[in-house]
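Thread title: Can someone regenerate the structure for this chain?

I was given the following input by a collaborator and told the matching structure tokens would be attached. They weren't. Posting the sequence so someone can regenerate them.
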Amino acid sequence: MDGLLLDTETIYSQVTNKILEPYNKTFPIETKLKMMGRDVRTATEILLADLDLPLTFDEYDNQATELKQIYFGMAMMMPGAERLIRHLNAHSIPIALATSSSKQMFEIKTAAHKDIFGLFGSTTCGDDPEVENSKPAPDIFLTAMRRLDNGLEPEDCLVFEDAENGVEAARSARMSSVWVQDLRFAGDEPVESMATERITSLLEFDPVKYGLPAYD
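Best answer:
Regenerated them for you:
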């Protein structure tokens, strides 16, 4: 969801840099790329270790949560996201949302877009008790699939992801995937993708390539 459907990655960077200011540090893109797609605790521990910050997880998380509650409600939809969601819903294609965000943060981020996110057949968050292991483990995608339709098999599913960790999770789940790589957060070195397809915006996605109805 983050960086794929909602433009929250810029907000994450703003929040992180605000917390880093007193330590005269800035948020490096290399660290951000390692954090993207992971659950809150894992991502925060990566940040604390990479930047050698004198903070515990709870100390950092308390500051970050306070700032996120202020800024995340202003998150806008990513280009092409609403069109794709409404298109799939209009053609009765089952869709599930699987996000590493906690349930609390999911509610804050989507508060201004409830009509769109209400079109998903199921929603699975990162703090869901049925999700034992976070991405890059496949748990969250397999849980979302089961909740959407018990008759589905991984081979029936197409995952959209903006992070390499998510693409790896989809592959581990034996699902096809489309990596929507936001070039604003791309590293300097080219990355070999495990995704079925790599695009740079949902506006580039062609549903016909995957046996789905064409856009009207």
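The chain is about 40% helix and 10% strand.
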